[in-house]
């Protein structure tokens, strides 16, 4: 038996459910970068605030070695990656490749390595990737910049094993020098 309730009755679940107009829900008035006002849900604007707060916190804590973009702050929340985990991938990668964007480097570490059987290499079910660019040190000497700064662009989890792409090219003269060095 179907009961038809009046549209303004609070027991009517369909009342006001069109385009997010739930009872007790008031969209937040916002202005975008061009000054055009519109409505935005509270959750979306709060997530943006949390992302900016995280980015500012990362740039304060990162010291002089890292600069964190707003994009990587969002991706770290999405993939549940901590700043220390991202830094560990950058410092000690299992594999490094040329990044998709120009002048970037992509590095990878396995998520959880599973020990292989005797004589077999370890396997893993996911990979953690980080893409970064190295910013050259400015000509003006500043006391807080020591060496080149790494701009962390993005981070992501890849399910399974990714195919091996082209490695970072090493100039021939440096390769010859490395071969001549006796350890």
UniProtKB/TrEMBL annotation:
Record region (Disordered): 1-37
Extent of Basic and acidic residues compositional bias: 19-29
Name used for this protein in its record: DUF4258 domain-containing protein
């Amino acid at each position: 038996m179907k009961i038809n309730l009046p549209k303004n009755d609070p027991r009517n679940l369909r009342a006001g459910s069109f385009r997010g107009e739930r009872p007790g829900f008031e969209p937040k008035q916002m202005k975008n970068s061009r000054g055009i006002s519109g409505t935005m849900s509270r959750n979306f604007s709060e997530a943006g605030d949390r992302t900016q707060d995280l980015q500012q916190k990362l740039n304060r804590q990162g010291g002089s070695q890292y600069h964190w973009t707003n994009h990587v702050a969002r991706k770290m929340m999405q993939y549940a990656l901590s700043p220390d985990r991202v830094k560990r991938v950058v410092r000690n990668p299992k594999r490094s490749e040329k990044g998709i964007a120009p002048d970037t480097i992509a590095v990878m570490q396995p998520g959880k390595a599973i020990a292989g059987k005797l004589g077999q290499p370890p396997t893993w079910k996911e990979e953690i990737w980080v893409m970064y660019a190295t910013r050259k040190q400015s000509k003006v000497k500043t006391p807080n910049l020591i060496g080149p700064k790494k701009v962390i662009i993005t981070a992501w989890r890849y399910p399974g094993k990714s195919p091996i792409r082209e490695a970072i090219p090493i100039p021939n003269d440096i390769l010859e020098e490395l071969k001549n060095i006796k350890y």
